[in-house]
Each structure stands twice: as C-alpha cells, then as structure tokens.
Amino acid sequence: MHELGITQSILSIALEKANEAQASKITKINLVIGELSGVVDECVQFYFDFLSKDTIAAEASLSFERTPNKLRCRNCDTVFSPDDLDWACPNCHEAKIEIISGRECRIESIEVE
Ligand SMILES: [Zn+2]
C-alpha cells in the first residue's frame, strides 16, 4: 500500500498551488493515474478524506483519469498498448519491451474558489 504517501503528496501539492493562487477553497482535484501504477482510487479517496480534514481541500472532490499502458519494443521500436498480460511485441513478437507510460500518478489540474 503506497496510497498514503501518494495522497499526502497530492494534498500538499494541491494546497501549495491553491495558496499560490490565493484560493480560499479547493473544489476539485483532477488526477491522472497510470494503469501500471497500482494505485487504487478508493484508497486515495479514503486517505484524502482523512488527511484533508481541517484544510481548505476538505470539500474537494477527486477525479481520476486512467492512462493506458504504453510499451515500446526495443527490437523494432513498435509502440503498443498491451490489452492483457501478454506483453510481447505485436510486430516482431519479441518480449524486449520498455514501459513508456502507465506508471504516472500526477495532478492534472485543481479547481479552486
Ligand atoms: Zn518488436
């Protein structure tokens, strides 16, 4: 479970940004989470509700956008999204792949008042 640490950093970044914008309240936080990050939305929401108490983000809603996995074949440079656990290249069938995206976990934007 690494959602607690992730949620802490999400909250502190959001609070910092809101502070910079001199906002009095954070209404929404839009997150982008890669499918490979293993982050569970419900856990982040749970920790967020707990951690954001007594902050201006207490009433903020979280929005999760999932980004699909993207892999690149080291053999022929084909970029593809695997649909299941078969990560072999669809072009040359080599399994020498590199992960391009799918591990990210970041704040896309925040909405404030
Ligand atoms: Zn290939």
Write the layout of secondary structure elements.
Blueprint (H helix, E strand, L loop, with lengths): L2 H18 L5 E9 L6 H11 L9 E7 L2 E4 L5 E2 L16 E5 L3 E8 L1
Instruction: Please give the share of residues in helix.
Output: 25-40%
Strand percentage lies at: 25-35%
Chemical compounds bound to the protein: zinc ion
Order of helices and strands: HEHEEEEE
Indicate the mean pLDDT. Answer: 93
Residue stretches low in confidence (pLDDT < 50, at least 5 long) are none
- Compute the number of helices: 2
Number of strands: 6
Label the structural class: alpha+beta
Task: Give the strand order, joined by hyphens, for the main sheet.
Answer: 2-1-6
Oligomer category: single chain
Question: Largest sheet, if any?
Answer: 3 strands, mixed
Description:
The chain has 113 residues and is of the alpha+beta class. It contains two helices and six strands. The chain has helices at 3-20, 41-51, and strands spanning 26-34, 61-67, 70-73, 79-80, 97-101, 105-112. The strands form two sheets. Strands 2-1-6 form a three-stranded mixed sheet, with helices on one face. The chain has a three-stranded antiparallel sheet with strand order 4-3-5, with no helix packed on it. Strand 3 (70-73) and strand 4 form a beta hairpin. The mean pLDDT is 93. The structure holds zinc ion. Zinc ion (ZN) binds at residues 73, 75-76, 78, 89, 91-92, 94.
